[in-house]
Amino acid sequence: MASPFEIRDIDRRIWEQELDSFVPEKVFDAHSHIYKWDFNLDPHKNTGGMAKLVLPHYEQASFALLDEADAALMPGREVHRLAFPFPFSLPCNFDASNKYIAEQIRQDSESAALMLVHPEMSSDEIYKQLDQSHFLGFKPYRFYSATGDAVNCSITDFLPEHQIEIAHDRELIIMMHLSKTDAIADPDNLKDLQGLCRRYPNVRWILAHCARSYSTWAIERAASVLRELPNLWYDTSSVCETDAIAALIKTARPNRVMYGSDDIPIGVLRGKYITFGYGWAYLSSENHTLNLAHCNPEMTFTRYEQLRAMKRAADLLGMGEPEIQDLFYNTARELVNSVGC
Ligand SMILES: [Zn+2]
Question: How far is the CA of 294 from the centre of ligand 1 (A)?
């Protein structure tokens, strides 16, 4: 099959004119997905919204396909990654998801994987899988909330404390995609994080998608609390706004922000996350009816929009080459190396 990562003129121009000089030679992608569409057990999955993102090219997101995506979108870069399964909505085959990623990640001794968890997994079950598969931590997801409410659930609704205790015990990473409409600005989320960081100080929390702050307001509102917490890291995956990334870098402790692609499939899809009021949404050429006759209406990869925002943020903050290398590689490398299992 031909490469699904077709590089068009628009992509080539953006890469060459804006990004090639910005993205360092060595990259550690802190947020990537390895999965098979087969692990989504929903019998109606092929008519749902997710199918449009995955079919036909991304039915099997293997380690090799991620390599292919990186080779196409960031030519010449050496890329390692922290990967985890795709959290399909229930019913999802957790067992097969974790087995597949454990097997795939062995292809690169410098990459690492996290285990997809749901709240009903017992401590014994998790310890067993950690030992068998050498996962460096957990990928919980709000879809698996014990309350059945994926929008308003609290952290411990989808990641119960017996699982956080394991992460503390083994000094593991937790990749946290926060829930609730105000995400990191939600007072209950902040209170929960403060309490969990105090009770389980060995956990390395990665707050995904700039702590799910696609714009500035959420991270700015949370800044004073976040600065106090010593065990938080962040990834920039799929955030396409310069001010959000700049606000995050200003908020986070030094060397806590990491590049992440959210591939596969988000970063390689053509479109962009946009924000408005207190909301955010994914804009693609398939889901809008804007009249774009006045300009070039083509869209590039989400990943390029994110990299553009990262570059502008780095420019705004006057970041030098060493800091950019930390953002793209060193911080994630050191975090992964620090995991105690
Ligand atoms: Zn993701």
Answer: 34
What's the CA-to-centroid distance between 291 and ligand 1, angstroms?
A: 31
Tell whether pTM > 0.90. Answer: yes
The C-alpha angle 87, 92, 96, rounded to 5 degrees, equals 95
Q: Could you state, in order of their start, the residue ranges of all structural domains in the chain? A: 9-338
- Strands 272-276 and 279-283, how do they pair? antiparallel
- List CB contacts of 184: < 8 A, sequence separation 6 or more: 178, 190, 207, 211, 212, 213, 218, 219, 221, 222, 226
- How many angstroms is it from 84 CA to the middle of ligand 1? 8
Split the chain (341 residues) into runs of 10 and give each run's mean pLDDT. 83 98 98 97 92 92 97 98 96 97 97 97 97 96 93 95 98 96 95 97 97 96 96 98 97 97 96 97 94 96 98 98 98 93 50
* Four-point Cα dihedral 107, 1, 273, 233, nearest 10: 0
Reduced to 3 states, what is the DSSP secondary structure of residue 196? helix
How far away, in angstroms, is 169 Cα from ligand 1 center?
25
Ligand 1 centroid to residue 208 C-alpha, Å? 8
What is the distance in A from the centroid of ligand 1 to the CA of 262?
5
Interval between CA 142 and ligand 1 midpoint (Å): 12
Ligand 1 centroid to Cα of residue 43, in Å, is: 23
Pick 9-338's CATH classification: 3.40.640.10, 3.30.420.40, 3.30.450.20, 3.20.20.140: 3.20.20.140
